[in-house]
Amino acid sequence: MTETALTVHQTARPTGFPSADQFRFAESPVPEPDPGTALVANLYWSVDPYHRELMDGGFALHAPLEGRTLGRVVASRTPSLAEGEIVFHRQGWRTHAVVRPEEVRRIPHHPGVPLSAYLSVLGGTGLTAYVALTRIARLRRGEDLFVSGAAGGVGTATGRFARLLGAGRVIGSTGSAEKAAYLTRKAGYDAAFDYRTAPVADLLARAAPTGVDVFVDNVGGDHLGAAIGALRERGRVVRVGTISQYNTPDAPPVRFDHADVVEKSLRVEGFLVKDHLDAQEELYDFAVPHLRSGALVADETVIDGFERIVEAFLLMLRGGNTGKILVRAA
Amino acid sequence: MTETALTVHQTARPTGFPSADQFRFAESPVPEPDPGTALVANLYWSVDPYHRELMDGGFALHAPLEGRTLGRVVASRTPSLAEGEIVFHRQGWRTHAVVRPEEVRRIPHHPGVPLSAYLSVLGGTGLTAYVALTRIARLRRGEDLFVSGAAGGVGTATGRFARLLGAGRVIGSTGSAEKAAYLTRKAGYDAAFDYRTAPVADLLARAAPTGVDVFVDNVGGDHLGAAIGALRERGRVVRVGTISQYNTPDAPPVRFDHADVVEKSLRVEGFLVKDHLDAQEELYDFAVPHLRSGALVADETVIDGFERIVEAFLLMLRGGNTGKILVRAA
């Protein structure tokens, strides 16, 4: 714990892809907790695609940013929080946070589970993948799955969870040959392709010549039209995000032939994970035993040092990570 | 019952809008039923949008067409079918049909219900509307509804059923000022517009300034994009058909911003009524008491004379009908 606290502020709105000069690191003394609060020294920060959207207006300029964070209570003036406890909170993008007890969630103690997992496969990222498969797609054993943005945090968790839930073939799309190789060699995918090499419809037809039952779409754009064509009867599309569109405001909307939706009785459904926080305990029950046994691995790209949080965020937006990207206190 | 039977054959495939010269009326003697079959003299024929699709390949050329039909058993050589019984079968587009008992469904006797209703609000058309609202949209009391192709068979049944199911505002889109007036004056719609007069999004914003919860889409095209924009959180789109695209093979696919699907947690779902035939008894239980009390009216355009069946079909494709279009034996 240093004597100086660092906070990141956004200083300008991006047009298109964000850049580092739209952020500023502000120094201040480490704050003192008031009565009823506690001081948390942050240990892990999550940077997420939705932060890009917040940059357009959800983040105030010249004010501390928010984000999912894990930290340790280092000074407490409330009986509800003990020094040494590990808590989850949303005052991200800063080295220290003063929190009220109702602002934090205690991280459960699951022996053998690394702390970072509570921001990756056991955190919002894992919960998104779990809800997408179980509540929205309602994946059944033996069904074949296609995932776009497959090498990211949600994509890797989706592939691994689908395998543990008894999926048939699991096929992923990602943005480089290296990440496609990661998916099939490390992350349990049966097939993967680099969508930049050919039309997505052609690549998907090659990887899944008889079609798929479920498409978990983290990307939007061309992937959706291609997947609609490849879906079997009663197929489902789960729309998780629109990362391909955040940085290209002039990009055309996605297009597909809606006759397919009727003739194949398809369902296309979007969701926000905040409406499914009640699934958190179910996710622990499902995933923790598999993490302990080694059947489940948390795919993570960890960047060391809070001062690299903007770099980590831009790397994530460029697709430079495999698995969930996290920043760890040095 | 005449001594001559008439059958309609398709003689050529359409490119774009079909024409009468792609059909031919064939004369033959009235057939004799073989043992195990019965002769049915047809009374009502349904012509439907899906027939347009069958013209592209589903209907064999120079062979009798198929369709939903009601007729009376006039000669029986099977103990399973009694002379005088009214039956539903699928040997449409002909004055007489020889049927096996397993090919027909007996029409239940609901006193006070007109026979034609079994091809309109109690038939496949009504079942489509009922399933769209109850099983796919899962409409709740007080929710506001937007319907495209609102003046057609499915559209009118959807509006009337929604009202009886406790919907809030019911708003319809149709292709002429006359049909819009029909919807609000006769068919129980709260508001209706002619979609040819302005961009659908503008017309819908005017008719439903605070948005809608459910969109039952019989049309596709621009309506879908407009409705996606107008849907409230957790809104549902039920895709019933694609009539706007059958006759314009070069029409672009529908387009909308899929970020809306995520951010508003929307669901877009297509279905085929053939997968929901088990809802038929539930439809009778729901609709027959309302038909008897007068709370439900079957909207129908009835064309008299089998020789006008092609005319009726083309009229339906041009949107010239209000309610379900039926042909009645002279």
UniProtKB/TrEMBL annotation, chains A, B:
Gene3D superfamilies registered for this protein in UniProt: Medium-chain alcohol dehydrogenases, catalytic domain, NAD(P)-binding Rossmann-like Domain
Q: What is the lineage of its organism?
A: Bacteria, Bacillati, Actinomycetota, Actinomycetes, Kitasatosporales
Name all Enoyl reductase (ER) domain ranges.
19-327
What's its top-level EC category? oxidoreductase
- Pfam families in the cross-refs: ADH_N_2, ADH_zinc_N
The record, for InterPro entries, names: ADH-like_C, ADH_N_2, ER, GroES-like_sf, MDR_fam, NAD(P)-bd_dom_sf
Residue ranges annotated as transmembrane are none
By what name is this protein known? NADP-dependent oxidoreductase
- The EC code for this enzyme is 1.-.-.-
Which species?
Streptomyces olivaceoviridis (Streptomyces corchorusii)
Q: Specify the domain of life of the species encoding this protein.
A: Bacteria
What GO molecular functions are on record for this protein?
A: oxidoreductase activity
| Region Disordered, annotated ranges | 1-20
Q: Does the keyword Oxidoreductase apply?
A: yes
Locate the compositionally biased regions of type Polar residues: 1-13
Q: What keywords is this UniProt entry annotated with?
A: Oxidoreductase
